[in-house]
Write a structure and sequence with these properties.
Oligomer: single chain
Helix content: 40-55%
């Protein structure tokens, strides 16, 4: 790249932006015109100290005047860059409403189109647009990024056809965008180091390429996964991929059916050996999905959530096992059979009909599972009359068996470890919503793995055959007993998201009463039940639950009536003071439209606390951005010697 002089940098890239601005200064930029690029006062001072003048405009509407001003000063903009950060795992296209997908893509394309118009008649030498590699080779969970990238490539082609320069650079995630890189690594993608990105950007611009994809690829892992179903023309001509394309090397005459081969193998061994064969198969697939070098790292009786699964990887394992066994498997496979050993027994029944594992393909595992009430929640009419639907469920919940003392539970209250590490353990209180369960904190725990133990504390009553608490005191007695048995005499931290933060608040006070208060409490985006903010976002909350109906959320009658059974327990909840140090983590993005005072939608806590903002909205902060949230909480706790 020639000495760039004045450069226009556009886009809200909070992670990549500072890197690029420093590179531009090092490459000879004398003026930086920033349009929507977040930049700290420290970075602005650093650039100024290096002789770079920095000016900002709030949006594209202010660009023409700012560009004219630079022209008059004799420093016209010759280089234009549109920056975006990685959007993380994203959402599969099947889970996005067409209208929402169109709106999101339209917003991203419109921003660059406005930039194109502002620079159309100016002597620009380089017009560089950042996109995602989701538009290059696809990504099951990046519908918006893939569609936006494809649309921006078309826009860039239009510029070139009109005689104006345009280069599209599609990036894999950078190192400081990925809190938990294991999912990427097992697909053969390594997060890009900033110095590698800088070199790649220079090469892309100097090479005058129309479009470039930049990724740090482990070809031995990437190619077999990418070509597992069919050959990939995209990889033709890539020397590193030669010989690794398993599908390309198969022909009709040599093709094998892994499911048929497995059945033949099982039929040819003694009955007593069949279970071990399937357990070995399950452990091998689990190791592949989680990125372990060997199945030996997978404990047969350890819960899948504790092994590191979340809803996306659960479905990935389900699909791999379906391909390998030919068995029809339910979407909630890992919820219904939560350890490798139990799953192997289930597969034995699905493949050969052995009574030891014979479970219907629908995933119903016990009398009373399934039903109509949870299914009704997915229907628009139930969400349109949410109050009526909830009132019906509250009445039905009154007929559920209940407990007043821990000894009245049919089975002991559960708690599940999601991560291990040397720091002070964190106990996460689950919400009371239809999504309730230990899986809610799977991605949050990923950011804490290796740093501290993370335990999920499920609420009783959401599983088949479980009793509901008769009142709030009954729930607190069970939870306090479970927490203290788990942490022993050591220090511990309570945490909770949304309704789980309500539970953490009342549980902390109960533990104070018992003389064992937590060392700290972490409250994540919580609001009172009658909050005007959440009242205005009722549709978004309900739709969010439906969108996140996942491998760990079977919408059955027990779950629906349990949600209703907990509503009266927390209906009158109000924040209460706690002895413990308190961190309030707030979502940085509103869940829906907000017309009130600026920041009036943000979660608040009326008692002494510290506050930080987390990337994402009410749902995505613990979902797609959960690992980042885990790191944020860990750093706060570590700063308090916890």
């Amino acid at each position: 790249m020639a000495a760039p002089g004045a450069v226009l940098v556009h886009g809200g890239a909070a992670v990549r932006g500072p890197h690029v601005l420093r590179w531009l200064a090092g490459w000879g930029a004398t003026h930086l015109l920033l349009a929507g690029v977040p930049v700290s006062a420290e970075l602005t001072a650093e650039l100024a100290a290096g002789g770079v003048e920095v000016a900002t405009v709030a949006d594209s509407a202010g660009l023409p005047a700012a560009l004219d001003q630079l022209d008059v000063a004799g420093t016209p903009v010759r280089t234009v860059l549109h920056l975006v950060d990685s959007t993380g795992p994203g959402v599969p296209v099947a889970a996005v409403e067409p209208g929402d997908l169109g709106a999101a893509v339209g917003e991203g394309v419109a921003a660059v189109a406005a930039l194109d118009v502002a620079c159309a008649d100016r002597p620009v030498d380089e017009f560089v647009v950042f996109t995602s590699t989701a538009a290059t080779w696809g990504s099951g969970g990046a519908a918006v990024a893939a569609a936006t990238g494809a649309a921006l490539e078309a826009l860039a082609a239009g510029r070139r056809a009109a005689g104006r320069p345009a280069t599209v650079v599609a990036w894999a995630p950078w190192v400081d965008e990925v809190a938990e890189p294991d999912q990427l690594r097992r697909r053969g993608i390594l997060p890009i180091a900033p110095e590698v990105a800088a070199d790649a950007l220079l090469r892309a611009v100097d090479g005058r390429d129309d479009a470039v994809a930049v990724a740090d690829v482990d070809w031995s892992a990437f190619v077999p996964a990418f070509t597992a179903v069919r050959p990939a023309p995209l990889l033709r001509g890539v020397p590193e991929a030669t010989g690794l394309d398993g599908a390309a090397g198969r022909t009709a005459g040599t093709a094998t059916d892994p499911a048929r081969a497995l059945r033949d193998r099982l039929a040819g061994v003694p009955v007593a050996d069949r279970y071990q064969i399937l357990l070995d198969l399950v452990r091998a697939h689990v190791a592949t999905v989680l990125g372990h070098a060997s199945p030996g790292a997978i404990e047969a009786d350890r819960d899948f959530l504790e092994l590191g699964f979340d809803s996306l990887t659960a479905l990935e394992l389900r699909d791999a096992l379906h391909q390998g066994t030919g068995a029809e498997l339910s979407a909630t496979l890992l919820f219904d059979h939560p350890t490798p050993a139990e799953l192997a027994r289930h597969l034995l029944g699905r493949i050969l009909g052995d009574t030891a594992g014979d479970v219907p393909a629908g995933g119903v595992t016990a009398e009373g599972a399934g039903g109509i009430l949870g299914a009704l929640f997915r229907q628009p009419k139930a969400r349109e009359d949410a109050a009526g639907y909830a009132e019906l469920l509250v009445k039905l919940a009154q007929f559920r068996p209940s407990f007043s003392e821990p000894g009245q539970l049919t089975r002991p209250a559960g708690i599940l470890r999601l991560a291990e590490g040397p720091g002070t353990p964190v106990v996460c209180c689950c919400t009371m919503s239809l999504l309730s369960g230990a899986h809610e904190y799977a991605r949050f725990a990923a950011g804490l793995r290796g740093r501290r133990d993370v335990w999920a504390l499920p609420n009783p009553g959401f599983g088949v055959g479980e009793e509901l608490p008769a009142d709030l005191d009954a729930l607190l007695r069970v939870h306090a007993d479970t927490v203290l048995r788990t942490v022993g005499d050591g220090r511990f931290v309570l945490a909770g998201h949304s309704g789980g933060a309500m539970a953490a608040n009342v549980l902390a006070r109960e533990l104070e009463r018992q003389g064992r208060p937590p060392a700290a409490v972490v409250l994540m985006d919580t609001y009172p039940a009658d909050s005007e903010v959440l009242g205005g976002w009722t549709n978004q909350l309900l739709d969010g639950m439906v969108e996140r109906d996942s491998a760990y959320t079977p919408m059955d009658d027990h779950r629906a009536t349990a949600w209703a059974g907990y509503l009266p327990l927390f209906l009158d909840w109000r924040p209460a003071p706690m002895e413990s140090a308190t961190l309030l983590v707030r979502a940085s993005e509103p869940l829906g439209e907000w017309s009130g005072e600026p920041d009036g939608w943000r979660s608040r806590w009326p008692y002494p606390h510290e506050a930080v903002d987390a990337a994402g909205d009410h749902f995505t902060m613990v979902g797609e951005r959960g690992p980042d949230l885990g790191v944020t909480v860990h750093e706060w706790l570590a700063g308090r010697d916890l």
